[in-house]
């Protein structure tokens, strides 16, 4: 179910949004989509964050967009480095914007907008480091069960 929600073109647009956001930052953004979320959504997002090794970025500036499509639940999880510098309500504001689009069935656009908003903050606090900056995590969407 999770993999069927987004067409090939949708997936490409989401990956392009990740790559576009990461051009200006040393931060890393990943999207993980699964059908169901067992337990609390934030706890599941933390487990996925760990499984994807997002905590291993040099500056601890990874951001995970986690979606459980059947359960209609999602979370945005930033690592320690980014959470120390963004406003306290930052993730909640992005979630509210995305929720509005999700309720209209605009899942791809919701993700793209959220990725761009996160990327803007990452670029402000973790600017691109030139040749020293490497892509530490894959840009492709990961899928769970």
From TrEMBL:
UniProt cross-references to Pfam families, sorted A to Z: TPM_phosphatase
Record-annotated TPM domain positions: 3-120
Domain of life: Bacteria
InterPro entries xrefs: TPM_dom
Protein name as it appears in the record: TLP18.3/Psb32/MOLO-1 phosphatase superfamily protein
Source species of the chain: Algoriphagus ratkowskyi
């Amino acid at each position: 179910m999770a993999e069927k929600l987004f067409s090939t073109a949708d997936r490409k647009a989401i990956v392009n949004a990740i790559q576009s956001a990461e051009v200006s930052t040393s931060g890393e953004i990943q999207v993980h989509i699964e059908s169901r979320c067992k337990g609390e959504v934030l706890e599941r997002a933390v487990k996925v964050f760990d499984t994807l090794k997002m905590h291993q970025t040099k500056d601890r500036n990874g951001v995970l967009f986690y979606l459980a499509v059947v359960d209609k639940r999602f979370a945005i999880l930033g690592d320690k480095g980014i959470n120390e510098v963004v406003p306290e309500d930052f993730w909640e504001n992005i979630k509210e914007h995305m929720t509005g689009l999700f309720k209209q069935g605009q899942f791809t656009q919701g993700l793209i907008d959220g990725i761009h908003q996160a990327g803007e903050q990452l670029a402000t606090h973790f600017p691109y480091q030139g040749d020293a900056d490497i892509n530490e995590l894959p840009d492709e969407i990961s899928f769970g069960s």
